[in-house]
Design a protein that fits this description.
Length: about 500
């Protein structure tokens, strides 16, 4: 006979698996849509590259039709991917209720009727229309660039150079639609199932669970652990006043409360043993992105782990002070040195390498998952592909680099994972192909400029220094990784 302890363990495991399934559905759909968008970009770039230098007005309709066909293909494919994702998310929301309860010993699936599919159908239509809008918007922007070519205001090469930016706007909107609307389908189905299930599971309630994202809405974090009856709304205390949501991404809620929201409404029973029956503790990593004042005013200190509470009780600059102090020590080195930090600024690991690289063992890297790793580049350049592959493969919270360039100007570089996280698989399938493309494109752009006399010999050092910065900036727009470069005044006052 299964004990209560075993039932609780199975319940917790099933609930965790269902939440992972939602993330997986969003990630897979996002990957497919971005693949379609990259295919469209490559086809359009090829079309523009084949445009003769003496482009004439009469050729414009033909080229526009070709681009329209390409973007229509993208819109159709993206719409199909969203419809499939919506179906999976809808079933995933139902499973979030059914699977954990059944794992806990209460068979409810056979006792509950099918949820009315009309709302799912409406949501699928809405998502398909959104993808169509993105396709049309990008196509109109490209057509505007074609018009400039036709009147001689720019060359086809100039238009090709703008493709990354034009497609980047579509990419950003597509990612937002995937994250928000598939999450909404999941939540709507989950809430509908909870409403049904409470009739045969006495005492069933719902609990708000925050997303755990680093860049989140503070009042959503503050609502974490809030328990309500199924038919009652959650009450969130925003800066504009109380906001009522039946569940995260509630269609009736203000748009500012739902876009990119990653929170969830979980099935809850007073007698269930769960790891965090009330508020889920903040991780130390999350606390890095929130000031002491912000968290202290929205979440009581007893809602965070003891270690994190100690960090909050100190000056909020503890981590940054330690990071800045150590990066200042290595910025001018002639050989590379790596330093890994804990969330409170404690130095966990240091290693010295050669002039252009550092060799690590797997044993050294495994403990650095979720940590911040910084190092210096003697030439002051941005990250190498090997830097970011290492960060993704071993799950660093952030990869940093510091250094001074040929002109003596110091820079600080930062690379963080997208909201969905990164991994070895993410590097291989998403980031690495983008790096290769943009590296080649940037190399060709610079070579063409040199041959055309636009870049002088005196400027070659600057071209070399800027190369990987330009590559990572383009890759970040395409893949969602978070890249930044800042000039750093290292002179001590």
């Amino acid at each position: 006979m299964t004990t209560d302890k075993e039932k609780n363990r199975k319940f917790r495991k099933a609930r965790k698996e269902r939440l992972k399934a939602r993330t997986r559905i969003q990630r897979d759909t996002r990957t497919e849509i971005l693949r379609l968008l990259r295919t469209a970009r490559d086809e359009i770039t090829q079309t523009l590259a084949g445009t003769p230098s003496d482009f004439q007005q009469f050729q414009l309709p033909q080229i526009k039709k070709s681009i329209e066909r390409t973007m229509t293909t993208f819109g159709d494919g993206a719409g199909a991917a969203m419809r499939d994702g919506a179906n999976q998310a809808w079933q995933g929301g139902i499973d979030l209720i059914d699977k954990p309860i059944e794992a806990g010993g209460v068979a409810i699936t056979a006792l509950l009727p099918e949820i009315d599919p009309r709302q799912l159908q409406a949501m699928r239509t809405f998502m398909t229309d959104k993808m169509g809008e993105i396709s049309t918007e990008v196509m109109n922007k490209i057509n505007s660039e074609l018009g400039l070519i036709a009147i001689g205001a720019q060359s086809s090469g100039d238009a090709i150079g703008k493709m990354a930016k034009l497609m980047g706007s579509g990419r950003k909107r597509a990612v937002t639609v995937v994250r928000t609307e598939l999450g909404r389908a999941f939540s709507v189905a989950s809430h509908a199932r909870q409403t049904q299930a409470k009739e045969i599971v006495p005492g069933l309630k719902k609990q708000w669970r925050r997303s755990g994202k680093i860049h989140s809405r503070l009042h959503h974090d503050a609502a974490d652990g809030q328990v309500k009856e199924i038919e009652e709304p959650f009450v969130l205390s925003s800066k504009k006043g109380p906001v009522e949501l039946m569940f995260p991404r509630d269609p009736a809620a203000p748009v500012g409360e739902v876009v990119n929201c990653g929170c969830e409404s979980l099935p809850f029973m007073e007698n269930w043993e769960v790891k965090n029956p009330q508020k889920k503790p903040f991780t130390d990593l999350e606390l890095q992105s929130k000031t002491k004042q912000e968290i202290a005013t929205s979440v009581p200190l007893n809602a965070v782990p003891k270690k994190a509470a100690r960090v909050l009780s100190k000056k909020p600059t503890t981590y940054r002070a330690s990071r800045d102090k150590n990066e200042l020590k290595i910025v001018g080195r002639k050989t590379e040195k790596a330093i890994a930090f804990d969330e409170d600024g404690t130095v966990l690991f240091e290693k010295v390498g050669g002039k252009s690289s550092i060799t690590f063992t797997r044993k050294e890297l495994l403990p650095l998952r979720g940590k911040v790793v910084t190092h210096n580049h003697p030439r002051g350049t941005s990250f190498s592909p090997e830097d970011i592959k290492l960060a993704a493969d071993f799950g660093f919270a952030e990869m940093r680099a510091v250094g001074s360039n040929y002109a003596g100007v110091s820079h600080r570089y930062s690379m963080r994972p997208p909201d969905s996280g990164w991994s070895e698989d993410f590097w291989k399938k998403t980031v690495e192909p983008a790096v290769k493309r943009h590296h080649a494109a940037e190399t060709n752009r610079a070579a063409s400029a040199i041959l055309a006399g636009k870049i002088k010999r005196a400027d070659m050092a600057d071209v070399d220094f800027e190369h990987w910065h330009r590559v990572w900036r383009a890759v970040a727009r395409e893949t969602g990784i978070k890249y930044s470069r800042r000039v750093w005044k290292t002179t001590k006052k």
